[in-house]
């Protein structure tokens, strides 16, 4: 019988030969909520987990789709609530302190460092220098003793290359000959390798733009496809009008936006599922927004006349209410469902009112049903 391979000697030699080599698995153990239970579920498979530290996550969408609201607002606040220090890199010169305060973000130096950077090279330098110092100070410590840090870049699409700056200064705008997509890919790829085993994560936003190809009209994510391959999570977002008031009544006025979010890539749940999250101008996003529709699509909430009902798996109790009380989480009914949720008991159901991938990422009209809902 052949002798079993002794891996201990090989492991010892290889770790000495390759400085900084990470051995073993680096499954995420720290997650930051997006501020919305349904979006969390679609990204991570858990209602309370949004994006992980140790990975790269990207929100991509058109202007005004709610990317900054979720990334620089909700996620930053949730990170601070977990004592995670945030480095907020503003490449658009758009994140005002007043706006962040309105979203309950703590801008004190002990909680947040805001950097105004425009060059890809400068962002890469900042992150590289940070990780070099971080490894020097904490690499020999246990993981739970290392400080937790989240980088937020808003946004990748607005960053410049040295060529852009030189041409602007010379008044000769010829383009950067494809250097920007390569630089962005290199930035994200190197960041992924640096973050792996440490309590540091990257959340970035990016833009989409209209395709100029008549044979391929889908909206394109700026910066090429390279950084998408290196990211663990990619959520595509599209802006729709919210024509429902605070009491749930349909009106002709616009009271906010509906952010159509589709998870295009995730390593923790089933991809290509979507949710429409309401962000009213007056009150902001509810963490329960979109949850009732998600539960209906999964056949967890069942229609019973004009009401929706849920049968508890644990007690057999039947909870029956109209839609508005469900949306308001009356008596903690939605909290109960999330507590009792079991993926093995939920049969997959096709979401009839969903927006397909083409509608989310291009300029073609929405489905007739969705368009009618928006116009109401």
Any overview of this molecule?
The chain is α/β, with parallel strands linked by helices. The chain has two domains: 209 residues, Rossmann fold; 57 residues. The protein contains 13 helices and 14 strands. The strands form three sheets. Strands 3, 4, 5, 6, 7, 8, 9, 10 and 11 form a nine-stranded mixed sheet that branches. Helix 5 packs parallel to helix 7.
Distance linking N and C termini: 75 Å
Oligomer kind = single chain
Number of strands: 14
SSE string: HEHEEHEHEHEHHEEHEEEHEEEHHHH
Radius of gyration: 23 Å
Principal-axes geometry comes out as globular
* CATH-defined topology of the largest domain: Rossmann fold
Protein topology:
Elements: H1 7-17, E1 31-32, H2 37-44, E2 51-52, E3 56-61, H3 67-81, E4 85-90, H4 97-102, E5 112-116, H5 120-138, E6 149-154, H6 162-170, H7 179-195, E7 200-209, E8 220-221, H8 226-230, E9 233-242, E10 256-265, E11 274-280, H9 291-297, E12 302-304, E13 307-311, E14 318-321, H10 323-327, H11 333-340, H12 357-361, H13 368-375
Parallel strand pairs: 3-7, 3-9, 4-5, 4-6, 6-7
Antiparallel strand pairs: 1-2, 7-8, 9-10, 10-11, 12-13, 13-14
